[in-house]
Design brief:
Layout: H1 3-21, H2 30-37, H3 39-44, H4 50-80, H5 84-95, H6 101-127, H7 140-187, H8 198-207, H9 209-219, H10 227-233, H11 242-252, E1 256-258, E2 262-264, H12 275-305
Antiparallel strand pairs: 1-2
């Protein structure tokens, strides 16, 4: 049984499962299990003195990410011992929770629909589940901008990056990335997490560096040139987030930004009532292209090893 061909078939089936069913309930979702498992660490780490917090946060990161990768490796090894007809669907079920394209698409589309059905207050309420910003002070333009930025950044974090690491290292790669990104979302902040979360934030930056730029390339058009995108990406504090967000801003021709922090494509138009729908269309095309590239990579690996 060729492992690359099994991985390709499992990825295609996992994509279909995501499109058809979306996310499993929390009771069945490995990310939720991970969150519950590390909650004692989550409560304890930020209470430590800076030096101890940095050391403990680093060791905790290695233990969590290493443990997740080891479990995924053991599961994948066991599945590869089965016949392909059994290994493919089981591997697809294990892979699916590592990425979440349908949920991201539906949540952003929900913000757009909320404007039509309940106006600005409803759109703000729907946006809460997508970002950590205080949405109560955002006007309609800022709500649209925030939703578009979240769509672009999470296209990388929730889809392209796990596919990239799946191609590199199979199921352990996809699930190691999901653990890395989850720890960054929980611990990678300044303030009380400045020291305990420093390693998590830096590791997420490092492991997401190439996928973020691949995501930007999938959203980009070669005719627009790479230099303008690089300039926009450099405007954000994040070494990675500005790439997909800048690509989306330039591709849409709209201005995006976080008040007091950065502005992308500052000569662009305001995000109007069509901007979210157009952003979803571009992101959908990029997601489909990412899937095609990942499958092509695995099939070329199969042809090389056959």
């Amino acid at each position: 049984m060729n492992t690359a061909l099994v991985l390709a078939a499992a990825l295609l089936l996992a994509w279909w499962i995501d499109r058809r069913f979306g996310e499993p309930r929390d009771a069945w979702h490995p990310v939720a299990w991970l969150g519950h498992t590390i909650m004692p660490l989550h409560r304890r780490l930020p209470t430590l003195a800076p030096r101890a917090a940095l050391l403990a946060g680093t060791l905790a990161w290695w233990a969590v990410v290493g443990g997740v990768a080891a479990l995924a490796w053991a599961l994948q090894a066991a599945l590869f011992m089965l016949p392909a007809w059994a290994a493919v669907p089981l591997l697809a079920l294990a892979l699916k929770p590592s990425f979440a394209w349908r949920m991201l698409r539906d949540e952003v589309a929900g913000v757009d629909a909320a404007f039509a059905n309940g106006g600005l207050p409803a759109a703000r309420q729907r946006l809460r589940s997508l970002c950590s910003r205080d949405v109560e002070q955002l006007d309609a333009r800022e709500v649209r901008e925030t939703a578009i930025e979240t769509l672009a950044e999470n296209l990388n974090d929730s889809f392209v990056a796990p596919l990239f690491w799946f191609c590199v290292a199979g199921l352990p790669g996809a699930w190691a990335w999901r653990a890395v990104n989850t720890l960054d979302a929980m611990w990678g902040y300044r303030g009380r997490w400045e020291w305990a979360g420093k390693w998590s934030a830096r590791a997420d930056d490092l492991l997401g560096w190439l996928p973020a730029r691949l995501t930007a390339a999938l959203l980009w058009r070669p005719s627009l040139g790479w230099a303008p995108l690089a300039r926009e990406a450099a405007r954000t504090p994040s070494p990675n987030g500005g790439w997909p967000m800048g690509a989306m801003a330039l591709r849409l021709g709209v201005r995006l930004g976080k008040p007091g922090v950065y502005t992308l494509n500052d000569q662009g138009a305001e995000a109007d009532t069509t901007a979210l729908a157009r952003a979803l269309a571009f992101a959908g095309q990029a997601a489909g292209a990412a899937l095609a590239v990942a499958l092509l990579w695995l099939l070329l690996e199969f042809a090389w090893t056959a």
